[in-house]
Amino acid sequence: MKALLKVMFTLALFFALTFVILKATGLITVEKIKFWLEEAKNTDPLYVAAIIVALLFADLFVAVPTLTVIILGGYFLGPAAGAISAIIGLFFAGICGFGLSAKFGEKLVSFLIKDRDKRDKAMETFQNHGPVVILLSRAVPILPEVSACMAGMTRMPFIKFLLLWLLSTIPYATIASYAGSISTFENPSPALFTAIGLTIFLWSVWFGFHRFVNGK
């Protein structure tokens, strides 16, 4: 387990570093995202959808406030178009992370874990628990990207990964987009309560899974 956590921590550290850099430079902020979406809506709603898709896809490479982007997508586009845009962006981020890691991830794992037996054990551990990690990954920022990369590194069957990724993504994006669609900047309560509720629910299930694994 320690070897697996080492790999996942390294990936998480990379994504966290991108967040720190963006925060320090101010290249992407919630205020800027709102401004971009407002300007895009005044031009063509399709530009709003394109920005949502691009931001959520970019989350694979730089840490973007995913839930905030999805909620704003629902606010500017409505529940259906907002959810579809979010699902498309997250879909491409997931398969890209899986594909890149399947092709290049083995080198990283070999670099971090020199011992072959420990490396095989780490991969086996993720193969056993990876599906649940992917399903519950939205509980923690950065974990979705890490889980997608780990699925690629451990050679999880692509169809299996895709199904798990969509099962994790579609309800999350749909609920968050709907919350955004019934919220306003003057009354953001639905979006705030939804964000809190989603986090608490996913954390509760994650905690239950952790207790179950440790109790074995």
From TrEMBL:
This is VTT domain-containing protein. InterPro entries: DedA_domain, VTT_dom. GO terms for cellular component: plasma membrane. Keywords: Membrane, Transmembrane, Transmembrane helix. The keyword Transmembrane helix applies. The keyword Membrane applies. PANTHER family: ALKALINE PHOSPHATASE LIKE PROTEIN. The chain crosses the membrane at residues 6-25, 46-77, 83-102, 161-179, 191-209. Residues 64-181 form the VTT domain. It comes from Aliikangiella coralliicola.
